[in-house]
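Final paragraph of the annual report: two paired records, presented back to back.
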Amino acid sequence: MPHTAAHHDSQPAPAQRSSGCATSRVRVEMGRRTQTAGRLSSLTPGSVIDLDRECDSPVDVYADGKLIALGEPVVVGGRFAVRVTEIIDTCESERVTPG
């Protein structure tokens, strides 16, 4: 599994695809980590930030800040991609603020 965060704009979420002109910003989150300001300021090329998820855990897929799906990271044509493994019921999903 890749060890870098992937943020990727993609097609609109299924709920908005039907309108034809509406778009959504899609974000993929592999995990999170709280860091002190001191630790962040000491980052250098090659530093590793470990995340709060196991490497075989699904990644979260958000559309406009709302969790819409779970998936697994894949590489397609040398680029990060996500294979969707589960659709989240957007009526029951809370709006999540990035970060």
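The closing record of the year follows.
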Amino acid sequence: MMMTTLLLKASRKEQRSFIRFIWSKGLSPNAIHSEMRPVCCNKCFTRPLKHAWCKTFAHGRESVSEQEQPVRSQHRFFASDIQKLVDALHGSNVQMNLDDVLKNKTIFSSDI
């Protein structure tokens, strides 16, 4: 009889590696969940997350590393803000580049 050892710590990368390995052997996401749950305890990925990773691997992803997130701008723009700017500039002969817009943040804080 085989004994199971609980993993008190299983990093996200380790879990993704396990999912990729077992998925490549043909197991379904539900079977992968059944294999991982008793071993990883409460630190285990959720069933929907396992399904998502299997789908990602099925679409050709090979890396189990975290994907680098794009650097986010410190400036946030909303569609309504951009629409206000377009409406304000419509019909005028004003040209602005993004740097000009960022320098003039008052456009986004006032109702044009």
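DSSP finds six helices and no strands in the chain. This concludes the annual technical report; the extension proposal builds directly on these records.
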